[in-house]
Amino acid sequence: MISMPDAIDTVLSRAFPLEAIASPPADAVGLVLAEDVVASRPHPPFPASIMDGYAVRSADCPGALAVVGAARAGAPFRADLGANEAAYITTGAPLPPGADAVAQIERVALEDDGATLRVRDDVARGQHVRQTGSDVKEGEILLPAGTIIGPHEVGVAALAGARGVTIRRAPRVAVFSTGDELVDPFADDASASSRSSAAPSSGSSSSSPSYGQVFDANRPMLLALAREAGATAIDLGVVRDDPAALAAALDDAILARGADVVVSSGGVSEGDKDHLKEVLIGTVGGGRCEGVVHFGRVMMKPGKPLTFAEVGPRPFEAAAAGGSERGRRRALAFGLPGNPVSAAVTFHLVVAPAIRRMLGWRDPRPRRTHATLSADIALDPERPEYHRAALEWTSGSLRGFSSRPGFGPGSGSSLPAFASLALSGGDPSALPVAHSTGRQISSRLTSMLGAEALLELPRGPGTIKKGAVVSALVVGDLRAARWQLPRVYPRVEPPPTKVPFEELREPPDAWTRAREEKERREREREDRRRPPPPEKDEPGQRGGTKKKCDARELILTVVAAPGEEGAKAASSVEFAALRAVPAPWIVTIETAAAADSYHLKEAVMKVAPTSAIVVVAPCGPGAVTSAAAVVGATERGYPSLAPAMRAAVTKLGPEATKKELADEACGWGVNAGEVAGAVVVSAPPKDIEKALRAGVGELCTAPRENWGLTTS
Ligand code: AMP
Ligand code: MG
User: Fold this and answer.
1) Which residue's CA lies nearest to atom 3 of ligand 1?
2) What pTM, to 2 d.p., does this model score?
């Protein structure tokens, strides 16, 4: 009996990329390029405008220019643009000869009924122009051979003007089930009788099973698996446990249908009706094909009887050696075990890699990840096991990479960072957690549901303990995983230099200017009604108003306690904050070193200099710990609430972490203060949203008396 890794090697040593054929790019999705796709022309093929505006000569700007024509996408302006001339231009239109830049429409004005263009600003040479070939150079290899074609590759091939691409042909995979007990669940009687060559005579194709019969689950599943792997699937129905019927099905697959791969299920064990191996080698059944069986049993669970053969027209030697076109028809034949789980698992482990190799994949083997067990698993004393499991990316599995959950070191998507113990920096808590899908008996196909991974468990005796790190072969689509990758917010680095707030915005249009003017007048009216700010700089009222907005004032940091609870509280505050402070505000999370007021306070002090607003997520009974952190960080905090809180904390000392204290001393209100110019608040999420909605602008710029945060 060979091991599974040896079985995979044996199969891959017999599978080869299929011949190259031409295909329209749009029909090649899922297939692999056999030749590079090269750009036949540059893109853009001419200097093109990026903006709607006016094509100008930069040397003439600023100034008053004569508008002499229009260049629109698809309708170029072909005349030379002379000195002090401009032409209207739309996005994507070729720049007229003589012009070297585009003035954005929002930044110019028309005079003299549109005959004169007034450009007020300097215009740099090349401004708002995409130069010829700036996206794609002529002759550039856009898609190298070996690329798996997806929707974006189709787009790139089209952009390159590639009407056809050269890809490797998809393997034809013929699938049949074997078993006298099987009933086709989807067959109506008409289609059952029309498929008489492969269907059994005993009426097993009727969709109503009688005593002793079961529905054929494997064939529909294996056909779907073959399609998912990228093959062209051919349905050969249900075949009786009879050597002649099996041989006829094999002949049909290889000789009539030209199958590159034959996948059957059942009939490979030790029962007196298990004839498939003999049929494959051509000793029974009287078929026109024969072959060699490379292995017929594998040291694994589930799927021990897995059989792999190469089969072709008799005499097989001629078939194997090549020769005539018919002689070359040599197929890979997989006799999968009949139990549905065994059929599914062995398909993933050996058939799918063979299909991928034939498609031309460079690395056709199953991808492996590392995971920690969520519970003890007893090992099989006889065979290594492929245990079905769902993967869960918990907040724990995100630790150790960043203070903001969900992102690994460096750049790119979060997923690869968690793929292995090595990448997790040796920290098992940073790996996904594997949940067994339950009872693993090989007939229980529901154990495949939600199984994204096959855990590679060694042969027993004994038990692998909860928390142990195991390797796992990924067989499901993680994008649709039952336990989703955690939802995280994009991480946006604060800009290295402060950008004046005004510059972050588009120049306002007339409507916006009118609205802003109205709002300004209303604000002035309101300010005149307000009492003047206090003269004295009392303790607890440091700071006062903030005058100028700067870049950091677009950053709101949520300070959270470590651990699951802290992460949960942080994400609900984060959600509330994101609703209240829409883009371009950046909401980030800072996790404190411990879940006590001292460490939360430390985290507040750390982030305050780079944040406009710091929200301490609720922590401790009645949120007393987070409230205490605000008190600690702001010394007195918000005048009306925090001193009361502070007094209570001082009086009761460590006892202050009691819910009664929080409720009685402060209620569930917002505590607020100021640290290093940042507004620091703590509150339950519902109040935070209200407070932030009441006006971020107010929080940052209004006198503290007017913050209006006390919502007790
Ligand atoms: P076999 O490998 O043919 O000995 O079958 C092993 C077990 O799997 C038996 O209980 C069969 O009834 C069952 N089985 C075989 N083929 C299928 C199938 N296509 N769909 C569902 N169960 C099957
Ligand atoms: Mg059987």
Assistant:
1) 266
2) 0.68
